[in-house]
Amino acid sequence: GTLEVWGGDYATFVKAKEERDRNLWAKYHKEQDDIAQLKKFIASAGTFANLQKQAQSKQKVIDKMVEAGLTKPPQEDPAYEFFFPDPGKLPTPVIGVDGVSFAYPGGAPDLFRD
Question: 25, 36, 65, 92: which has the fewest Cβ within 10 Å?
Fold first, then answer.
């Protein structure tokens, strides 16, 4: 796979990814429709001499599209399911502390003081 870098926050990521997926689906469906139309023409040309040259030309178009690489449909995001076992009842107190404080470095005021 490839690593994709997205800028912005999560909401921006979701919006950009949905837009990208919509565009990829549109491109994929257009390519598939174009190929189906070309194949339909090729099949209907049959043995008519006047249509054989056009049919060969349309087959070359399909071959070039395949050679250049067709658009792959976007993959569905995997669904994850997490399971955390019940820890049961914890005894009180789990840990006891006295005289504890917490602050960010740089002289910021205490966020917590016991």
Answer: 92
